[in-house]
């Protein structure tokens, strides 16, 4: 289990993490989401004890990570896959980590095979692609067979096969009762992988809920089909709805739920052929949750506005 309790991190006059509290529980893959600059990586560094907090604490299984005599056996972490000695081989890199934590050489070979690098174990890391370095970093996190895993953007550089492999690996580890915390900007993949989600913005907690519940917080569109589409659109707009005509005579309706649309149609004697709520996607939910917390924004070209 990972516990973040009232964590505050400051850099000069800037507050990077602001009284943040959440718990990552065993048996689940927990997604850690937030815009760029939200404080995700800073929080993960605090969990590892790489930077002292201004206030609060971050604990792994009830204690500071630095207090474990063999920390790789307690929690495996990946923060930066590029932070390795390029002149070493993949095997030498993992063997060095293994020796420092009392882990046998057999485990090094097993992990290299598990992450798909057995065939290049003797090659220097400096010649690895980004995806190969990501696999090596994941291997380092798995080396101590830990009960807790914390991975920052581990999907970067992985090809579709690698992404699917990692998704299945993380879900299988959670199914064994391990704690898994995963950050990623790939919303579609996060929706497939994570069971629970923690969302932060400007260093503060925005949401801490089941993945399915996140999109459910926001009403999506309602698809309506009727022989009197133009007339119904006028009725719905008069009651504050945003209505867009779609192909085939369908209407896409926002700002009114399906039940209210049905009541309005009945009151006007308009027959409905279809009335189907369409929930917000994870990406839509994330954008709406964090729209006030996004520090770095880009303007849209006129052609796509």
Automatic annotation (TrEMBL):
InterPro entries: AAA+_ATPase (IPR003593), ABC_transporter-like_ATP-bd (IPR003439), ABC_transporter-like_CS (IPR017871), P-loop_NTPase (IPR027417)
Pfam families: ABC_tran (PF00005)
Gene3D superfamilies for the chain: P-loop containing nucleotide triphosphate hydrolases
Entry annotated with the keyword Transmembrane helix: no
Coiled-coil parts of chain: none
Protein name according to UniProt: ATP-binding cassette domain-containing protein
Residue ranges constituting the ABC transporter domain according to the UniProt record: 2-227
Presence of the UniProt keyword DNA damage in the record: no
Gene Ontology molecular function: ATP binding; ATP hydrolysis activity
Domain of life: Bacteria
Family: Belongs to the ABC transporter superfamily.
Lineage: Bacteria, Bacillati, Actinomycetota, Actinomycetes, Streptosporangiales
Swiss-Prot/TrEMBL keywords: ATP-binding, Nucleotide-binding, Transport
SUPFAM superfamilies on file: P-loop containing nucleoside triphosphate hydrolases
